[in-house]
Design goal:
Radius of gyration: 20 Å
Distance between the termini: 22 Å
Oligomer: single chain
CATH topology of the largest domain: Isopropylmalate Dehydrogenase
Number of helices: 11
CATH superfamily of the largest domain: Isopropylmalate Dehydrogenase
């Protein structure tokens, strides 16, 4: 039996994870879920130490086959710990953060139907946390780009294109300005493609050009893998989420060589805590993806199909999808559709 470390997180995280577990239990999945704590709320209650993750949780994470993380809050105040997600990504070297961007049936937005995948390097770049003050009036942040991580995330992008039968990888960059760091990233992408994936086209696109075309003609990117550095792809995948409704529809995963963490792409939305209001789609589908990862493919597939059916029908959905149902009711409808 596979073991999953389960972090409910902050804000609406607990109710969203509970909704996911309601569906997973109905699916017949046999994995063992081991609850553990992490996040700003735990940190506030327990002495405000150097990390949002207690030692006991690290032990569970290290012993599990993978991790599911509900939304967590990251404080913007200098001197507070780095985020739970970044801490776990760096600890397990989860270099590929993956967010599929695909229109749901009967949910085509005003800019049309889309289907592409965002692959984001998840461990370095400006998220390395290397910043300091030179004086009270001057602050510096270091954008760390390595050939090792760039090569790994590039290979993941090409493998994902190969797995899906797609023929193009788009490398997002700003190499006309960040000539050394993005130059190294692009060199790594092209080296991997030229050596091992000659049948997959590589297109280099500046981030500003991509951002504009994502609104002007998003179908241009259908059946493409879009790969880039940490901050660029974080922002672009959030922008792209608007094409399929909202960030509440975007499930995601973080992959390394031997470990993975699954999570909804959105934040903890603390203002909605306890209101049973937030759309559980991203959380439930992240859980379905996690089941597929640990070998429970039939349960994962069934959850994907049931969730898609409920969203497409639009009868028992949350307010952002035009409905009047709550988090729990929508999860119950998905469980029933199983």
């Amino acid at each position: 039996m596979k073991k999953v470390a389960l972090i409910k997180g902050d804000g609406t995280g607990a109710e969203l994870v509970d909704a996911m577990m309601l569906v997973i239990k109905r699916s017949g999945a046999t994995a063992e879920f081991i609850p553990c704590v992490a996040g700003a709320e735990w940190w506030e209650k327990n002495g405000k130490g150097p990390s949002f993750i207690p030692e006991e949780t690290w032990k569970v994470l290290d012993s599990a086959d993978c991790c599911f993380k509900g939304p967590t809050t990251t404080l913007p105040t200098p001197g507070t710990p780095r985020s739970v997600a970044i801490s776990i990504r760096q600890h397990f070297n989860l270099y590929a953060n993956v967010r599929p961007i695909k229109t749901f049936p009967n949910r085509v937005g005003p800019l049309g139907e889309v289907d592409f995948v965002s692959v984001r390097e998840g461990t370095e770049g400006l998220y390395s946390g290397i910043e300091y003050k030179l004086s009270d009036d001057v602050a510096v942040a270091v954008r760390l780009i390595t050939r090792d991580k760039s090569t790994k995330v590039a290979r993941f992008a090409f493998e994902e294109a190969k797995r899906r039968g797609w023929k193009k990888v788009i490398a997002i960059n700003k190499a006309n300005i960040l000539k050394i760091t993005d130059g190294l990233f692009l060199d790594s992408v092209h080296a991997v493609g030229a050596k091992d994936y000659p049948d997959v086209e590589i297109e280099d696109l500046f981030i500003d050009n991509f951002s504009q075309q994502l609104i002007k003609n998003p179908q241009r990117f259908n059946q493409n893998i879009v790969v880039g550095t940490n901050l660029f792809m974080d922002i672009l995948s959030e922008e792209a989420s608007g094409l399929v409704g909202s960030i509440a529809m975007i499930y995601s995963a973080n992959f390394g060589e031997k470990y993975a963490m699954f999570e909804p792409a959105h934040g903890s939305t603390p203002k909605y805590t306890g209101m049973d209001r937030v759309n559980p789609t991203a959380t439930i589908l992240s859980g379905a993806w996690m089941l597929e990862y640990i070998g429970e493919k039939s349960a994962g597939k069934a959850i994907f199909e049931a969730t898609t059916k409920v969203v497409a029908e639009g009868k028992v959905v949350t307010y952002d999808l035009g409905g009047s149902s709550g988090t729990t009711a929508m999860a119950q409808a998905i469980a029933k559709a199983l």
